[in-house]
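Priority: medium. Attachment 1 of 2:
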């Protein structure tokens, strides 16, 4: 595991990503590139186009050039690293790949994206079959789309684009928003324990379908408690907190508290929600008293357990 893989996958389908165009997808569909979860495989499952693969696979190229697929990031942002996974592609993977990125305003068509100015963020790199390739990115630019180039052809199971979301928050001028949401630029920057699942799950879009889509800690055997810290989309005033324990029936925390950290004020903290009882498998909503803007919110759960989602609604300062 590489350090950047702890950051959200900006391209993930469940975060709004889409494979908007590809040069070819004769053997296996381009949409597989951004599916959640590990690629699957079952030997000797043949369809009308050959062996069925859980990935993107192009035909054998008989002319000059190379294949490519363009992905619209579900969360525009700064890319810190890319994972190119050739799982199960052993005799039909591309020997080389590279990744480009572009920042496109609005809602461009595939034709407009093909004419866009692209920046190489991962240079042409040798690949191995049936392997994950963890490739760090140092480019500091904010991007909305990436293009995977496969030289000259072949199959790639998954493309992961890990980084920090940088949405256009000017759309919310004068409006309230979820200051903690991943899609608005929120990020979990610290966490006491992530034994069962990632803490960034609690600020993901939508509702958790089962407990693995939330955050769950190991059972504590001491007198402490578990916690996480959310960096907000920007300095803001939080007025409504949603603490959701849906699907956590026998492993929900007994209580929760919220503490804010003001901008540029050292270690000073502000109590946003005092220790408050929680119920299992329940969405909780708490109106918070007026307070000054904060940049981070610490969520303490007592003593351990899990949360499905955390929403912190308010206004940017």
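Attachment 2 of 2:
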């Amino acid at each position: 595991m590489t350090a950047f893989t702890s950051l959200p996958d900006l391209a993930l389908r469940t975060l709004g990503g889409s494979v908007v165009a590809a040069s070819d997808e004769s053997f296996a569909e381009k949409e597989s590139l951004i599916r959640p979860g590990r690629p699957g495989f079952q030997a000797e499952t043949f369809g009308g186009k050959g062996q069925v693969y859980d990935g993107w696979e192009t035909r054998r190229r008989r002319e000059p050039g190379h294949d490519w697929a363009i992905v619209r990031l579900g969360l525009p942002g700064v890319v810190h690293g890319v994972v190119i996974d050739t799982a199960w592609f052993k005799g039909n993977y591309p020997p080389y790949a590279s990744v480009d990125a572009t920042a496109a305003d609005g809602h461009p068509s595939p034709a407009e994206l093909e004419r866009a100015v692209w920046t190489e963020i991962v240079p042409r790199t040798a690949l191995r079959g049936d392997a994950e390739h963890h490739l760090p990115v140092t480019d500091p630019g904010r991007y909305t789309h990436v293009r995977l180039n496969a030289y000259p052809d072949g199959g790639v199971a998954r493309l992961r684009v890990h980084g920090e979301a940088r949405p256009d928050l000017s759309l919310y001028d004068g409006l309230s928003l979820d200051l903690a949401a991943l899609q608005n630029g929120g990020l979990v920057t610290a966490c006491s324990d992530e034994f069962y699942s990632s803490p960034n799950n609690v600020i993901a879009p939508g509702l958790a379908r089962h407990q693995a889509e939330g955050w769950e800690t190991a059972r504590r055997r001491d007198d402490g408690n578990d916690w996480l810290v959310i960096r907000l989309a920007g300095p803001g005033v939080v007025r409504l907190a949603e603490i959701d324990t849906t699907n956590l029936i026998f492993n929900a925390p007994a209580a929760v508290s919220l503490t804010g950290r003001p901008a540029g004020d050292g270690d000073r903290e502000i109590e946003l929600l005092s220790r408050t009882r929680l119920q299992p498998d329940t969405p909780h909503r708490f109106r918070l008293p007026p307070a000054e803007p904060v940049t981070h919110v610490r969520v303490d759960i007592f003593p351990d357990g899990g949360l499905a989602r955390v929403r912190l609604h308010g206004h940017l300062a």
